[in-house]
Design goal:
It contains 19 helices and 13 strands. It is of the alpha/beta class. The protein has a domain of 203 residues: Rossmann fold, CATH 3.40.50. It is globular and about 60 Å long. The structure holds pyridoxal-5'-phosphate (PLP). The site of pyridoxal-5'-phosphate (PLP) has 16 residues, from helix 11. The site of pyridoxal-5'-phosphate has 16 residues, from helix 11.
Length: 442
């Protein structure tokens, strides 16, 4: 029997994993979650340290996709999606950095996007209509999704990004591909892009004429793979015989952290989580006893975390049965200004010769502060979400160290930008989607 997925809003019929992936957002506007958290095979966690990453991925995903994809297909999806390395780097003072940025677009989003794209290509031949994937991006999601889905048959991708608010490298990585990837440069901020996408999903006229899906972190197929690396890191630490770790997650839409919470529910040995944000501190404010009050996002150095209304927070509440007290016990929250982020980058480099992107620096600063407060002997593992080279404009003046651009990145900067500028207007956006459908049918 396939595992069933229900909406956090509670008014949508249950569906299977692949159906939840194909739809993206549930029809009642909620996010899909499994009706219960399925466990990996008995003995899996005990033997964790013996498994390579792809086998951890396979074992954790298997019960989610039971009856929907054969075991051999699932294994090949995992092997093909995760064909790059990840590293657990020790720092001073019982701290570690889990480097998740060694994939093709140099951000952790490659894990989610590549896994999801391969599942889409598995089901593409079962579909009659083209699936149109709409994605609002503040930079890294766009490039990871664009690359993951590039030339996948039966799928068209529309990326919306805020004009002038993503780095040049991020922009060029997504906007120069073409083919089945259309990029829209929106005259607005990230939240505007997200709002346009959300509106498309509730537009019944559009929904009835084209098959829409989302590759934002609201998609359950991006969420699941974001649980795998927590398992891998815990396995590496088991070899060293240390206490169960605390995971510190630089957060924006909170998909990454939700992936960790799912891993914990599947049995991952973990002590606690830390949510680290920039000045967009809606969740840390809540975690420190305040009310949960979404706010317009403000622009910061760690731009992939500039989110004022984190879409996955509803999932976290759902996982904890709406028990805010329990959430605050299990997740600590910290937030930092740009000045504090810069000083964290500078200190890390000067004292430990470690170059961190601004997102990772926010996390490492939170990890250090947590450890000073708690002193409880649990190692703290901070997730490094982007490669420093993607943010060299920020890092170089702070550290005084030049970061060379690898050849394979340089090539993007020399390509032709193909994005289409649009106003922050839903009618413009929907018109463009309708036109693309008509072109498709000619
Ligand atoms: C997307 C992103 C984040 C935030 O991840 P969420 O899952 O949205 O919380 C952090 N850092 C980088 C570099 C990112 O690309």
């Amino acid at each position: 029997m396939a595992l069933s997925f229900i909406s956090t809003s509670g008014h949508a019929p249950p569906v299977s994993f692949l159906e939840a992936m194909r739809t993206g957002l549930a029809p009642d506007g909620g996010l899909y979650m499994p009706s219960h958290i399925p466990m990996p095979k008995p003995g899996f966690w005990k033997d964790l340290s013996r498994y390579p990453f792809t086998e951890i991925a396979y074992n954790l995903a298997k019960p989610w996709l039971e009856g929907e994809l054969s075991e051999s297909k699932l294994l090949s999806v995992a092997e093909d999606a995760f064909n790059f390395e990840l590293k657990l780097v020790p720092l001073a003072g019982n701290q570690y950095v889990l480097e998740l940025f060694h994939g093709p677009t140099l951000a952790f989003k490659d894990f989610g996007a590549r896994f999801m794209a391969r599942l889409f290509s598995e089901i593409a031949d079962r579909e009659e209509k083209t699936v149109n994937i709409l994605v609002a991006t503040s930079g890294d999601t766009g490039s990871a999704v664009a690359h993951g889905f590039y030339k996948v048959p039966g799928v068209k991708v529309f990326l919306l990004y805020p004009k002038g608010k993503v780095s040049r490298l991020q922009e060029m990585q997504m906007a120069t591909l073409g083919e089945n990837v259309t990029t829209l440069e929106v005259d607005g901020v990230f939240d505007d892009c997200q709002a346009l996408v959300k509106q498309a999903f509730t537009d019944s006229g559009l929904q009835s004429s084209m098959q829409l899906s989302s590759a934002n972190s609201i998609n359950v197929a991006r969420l699941l793979p974001q649980s795998f690396y927590y398992g891998w890191a815990a396995g590496q630490l088991m070899k060293e015989g240390v206490e169960p770790p605390v995971f510190c997650v630089p957060s924006g839409n909170f998909g990454n952290l939700t992936g960790g919470l799912l891993a914990e529910r599947m049995g991952l040995p973990v002590h606690r989580f830390i949510a680290a944000t920039n000045r967009n501190a809606v969740v840390p404010v809540f975690l420190n006893g305040g009310e949960y009050r979404p706010a317009p996002s403000v622009q910061t150095l760690s731009n992939a975390m500039d989110v004022g209304n984190p879409s996955n927070f509803v999932r976290i509440r759902h996982l904890f049965g709406m028990d805010d007290h329990e959430i605050r016990k299990q997740i600590r929250g910290y937030s930092y200004s740009d000045a504090q982020t810069r000083s964290a980058m500078e200190t890390l480099f000067r004292q430990q010769n470690y170059l961190a992107c601004p997102h990772t620096a926010v996390g490492l600063r939170a990890a250090a502060e947590y450890q000073k407060e708690e002193q409880n002997g649990h190692p703290v593992v901070t997730l490094a979400t982007a490669h420093p080279v993607k943010f060299r404009d920020v890092i170089e003046p702070v550290t005084g160290k030049e970061i060379p651009v690898p050849e394979r990145l340089q090539q993007w900067l020399n390509r032709e930008k193909k994005s289409i500028p649009i106003r922050n207007s839903y009618s413009d956006f929907s018109e463009l989607l309708h036109e693309s459908r008509e072109r498709n049918e000619v």
